[in-house]
Amino acid sequence: MKKHGAIIGLGYSLPENIVHNSDLEKLVDTTDQWIRERTGIKRRRILEREKPSYDMGVKASKQALENAKISSKDIELIIVSTESPDYLTPSMACVIQDKIDAENAAAFDLNAACSGFVYALTVADQFIQTGMYNNILVVACEGLSKVVDWKDRNTCVLFGDGAGACILTPSDNAGIINYDLGADGKKRKAITIPLTHFNEEELFKRNNKREQVIYMQGREVFKFEVTAMTKSVKKLLAEENMSIDEIDWIIPHQANMRIITNSIKKLEFPIEKVVITLDEYGNTSSASIPIAMAEANENGKFKSGDNIVLVGFGGGLTWASTLIKWL
Ligand code: COA
């Protein structure tokens, strides 16, 4: 019988430092009102510059282990989703393996930008289905403040730092039921963070400076994301022969409140059943979905048997959604 990867533990971690929209008014030509109205963001958490981003991933992982009531020695695989790693090598997964004493685990990073956590869950679920591993730690950890251009008002108001983690284990009738993954590399130039290669175009977009900072065509990305979110969720439901009324919660990537409300309206889903953390934490890339899921779980929102849809979209450009039956 087919096994599903079920979530048995969740954790999240956010930096203590809160940056309000009014703080950003001092950095760039913007206003609290513009940011709230155009994005829905009120504040975000920003990691101290000298601290490594992996610290957040370690804290989220330890909380997930406690929540699952298992030992780190029982973890057989660690997958970390990140587009803002501290090092190219070692992977963040290897750093976390060391810091949580999970010496029996294989470990690697995966980068699918803001869709990364759902991609990582899907990969983890494959290992569960084949029977290769029983306890898998999936972490999404992002220190985006380190790659944000703090002089660019088009992007610096959007992002925040944070990490979320979960533990997957095999289950007969609950867990990950289905997924839809996709990418459109032709639109790849809509969001870029160069690392070692800068062509003329990349330099021009960054004021002719070799800077490892985010550049984004906001409007282009916005349109893609509304379409991707709507299509992907509809595809999942069609494959499972389910109607939207059978879904209890949707946890979308937290990029922009207008992206969420436009897509939710197209899906004809009640906004009260959408988990939102965007106002408090901003866009934490791939960490936004597990942070929202862990916080909602902590607040007792989910009950056994709930059908929960996670849907991510972003750089690449990529999208990913999954349907989970809550354990
Ligand atoms: N404060 C004030 N004005 C701003 C601003 C800011 N922080 N950022 C942009 N503007 C200005 C623009 O310069 C533009 O001015 P102009 O008309 O004089 O040129 C005006 O606001 C409208 O810009 P536009 O880009 O059309 O705004 P928008 O309503 O599309 O909102 C985003 C911009 C970035 C918030 C929106 O496009 C978005 O959220 N895109 C997707 C972002 C995303 O999801 N990114 C992460 C990938 S997961």
Notes on the structure:
This protein is of the alpha/beta class and 327 residues long. It has 2 domains: 4-173, Peroxisomal Thiolase, Chain A, domain 1 (3-Layer(aba) Sandwich), CATH 3.40.47.10; 177-184 and 217-325, Thiolase/Chalcone synthase (Peroxisomal Thiolase, Chain A, domain 1). It has 11 helices and 13 strands. It has helices at residues 21-24, 32-39, 54-68, 92-99, 116-130, 153-156, 200-205, 218-239, 257-267, 278-281, 288-298; strands at residues 4-13, 18-20, 43-45, 77-81, 106-110, 136-143, 161-171, 175-183, 191-192, 215-216, 249-252, 307-314, 318-325. The chain has a 5-stranded mixed sheet, with helices on both faces. It has a 4-stranded mixed sheet with strand order 8-13-12-11, sandwiched between helices. Strand 12 and strand 13 (318-325) form a beta hairpin. Helix 8 (218-239) runs parallel beside helix 9 (257-267). The longest helix is centred in the C-terminal third of the chain and has 22 residues, at 218-239. Bound molecules: coenzyme A. The site of coenzyme A (COA) has 21 residues, from helix 2, helix 6 and helix 8.
User: Low-confidence parts lasting 5 or more residues at pLDDT below 50?
Assistant: none
- What spatial order of strands do you see in the largest sheet? 1-7-6-4-5
Distinct small-molecule ligands in the complex:
coenzyme A
Distance between the termini: 17 Å
Which term fits the overall shape? globular
CATH superfamily of the largest domain: Thiolase/Chalcone synthase
Number of strands: 13
Give the tally of structural domains. 2
